[in-house]
Amino acid sequence: MADFCYFCETKVHNFSRHLRRCHPCEAEVQNIFSLNSKDPVRRQLLASVRKKGNFIVNFGECIKPMKKTMVPERNHLPCTNCLGFYSAKFLWRHRKKCLGKNSTNPQSDSQTLLLGKNNINSRVREEVFPRMRADLISLEAKKGQTYLCFCGEIPDNSSGKTFCKCRVQKNEGTCSNFN
Description:
The protein has helices at residues 15-22, 27-33, 40-58, 91-97, 106-115, 122-128, 136-143; strands at 3-5, 10-12, 76-78, 85-87, 147-155, 162-169. By secondary structure, it is of the alpha+beta class. The chain has a domain at 1-58. A hairpin with a 4-residue loop joins strand 1 (3-5) and strand 2. Residues 171-179 have low confidence and may be disordered.
């Protein structure tokens, strides 16, 4: 399958050759091709440019995963560090090797990354979404016409922790509790 070049916004089959021939003036490309062809850093940089382009094309649905599996495409999620699409079942395994910060719930973070910059309150994005279990129901709740409203924190007397209380609204308006 072809990779997507985000410099010229076209699909190409031989990605490294395309970068060398068509985009030699780009700073990222110059940095990549200044290294030795067998250098692992060069391979990582080339893979990161390839993953960025494929993430732009795959945004919303995975067309080109990093590894071809028998799993349907709807079960692929992006890594929040490198933007490569991986099977949701094995995303944790990739995150152990992937550079960058690791989180406790990579599937939920990946689902939130798929939302983009929708009109979602930052407080909901930072406090409510990470607590949601990563399944198809939460994905539809995050990206659908459903609005999650943050109602406040409720202290639990037995453990001393505070729990997040949310309300779901199905209308087009915003919740009055976000003021």
